[in-house]
Amino acid sequence: MKRAAADLIWSASAKVTREERAEVIKRLPPLLRRLREGMASANMNDERQDERIQSLNNSLASGVHRQGRGDPQ
């Protein structure tokens, strides 16, 4: 779970280049799987997991798109 936390923090930090944003998109599915596994081990029901994952996914995707505006690369 430490790795998932570190990946989540990295994913949420500012990404300047297209390559960095592409890396976030690449890392997101396995990260979300690890987070879901952690929530399941904490006995969080599937509906609540879905809500949390969707909210996180939307936040990260929004950040990636917002940071991509005006990128000269």
Largest beta-sheet characterization: none
Counting DSSP E segments of at least 2 residues, the number of strands comes to: 0
What structural class is derived from the secondary structure elements? mainly alpha
Shape from CA axes?
Answer: elongated
Low-confidence stretches: none
Mean pLDDT across all residues, rounded? 84
The helix fraction, in percent, is over 70%
Whole-number radius of gyration?
13 Å
Distance between the termini: 34 Å
Number of helices: 3
Helix/strand order, N-terminal first: HHH
Give an account of the 3D structure.
This protein is an all-alpha fold. It is 78% helix and 0% strand. It has three helices and no strands. The protein has helices at residues 2-12, 18-41, 46-67.
